[in-house]
Amino acid sequence: MLDFYCPRLRxxxxxxxxxxxxxxxxxxxxxxxxxxxxxxxxxxRFWNSDVxxxxxxxxxxxxxxxxxxxxxxxxxxxxxxxxxxE
Length: 86
Description:
Layout: E1 4-6, E2 11-16, H1 23-38, E3 42-47, H2 48-53, H3 55-73
Parallel strand pairs: 2-3
Antiparallel strand pairs: 1-2
């Protein structure tokens, strides 16, 4: 289960507590991240302590990645002009 997900950008944000530092949890998280990546979802992980102690840095990182993904999601529009006979 994801903590936060933006379907338009295919961006997941995970907030991890200390239990995610256990070897079994690290492996579990790596498998989950690989599963999401195989489906085109980018995953950002932050420690809970980072969110509490450095919220501005966490938000800045999310903003930067969201901007990158937003640019990647933009498809240039092909403009067509119908030729007219004069």
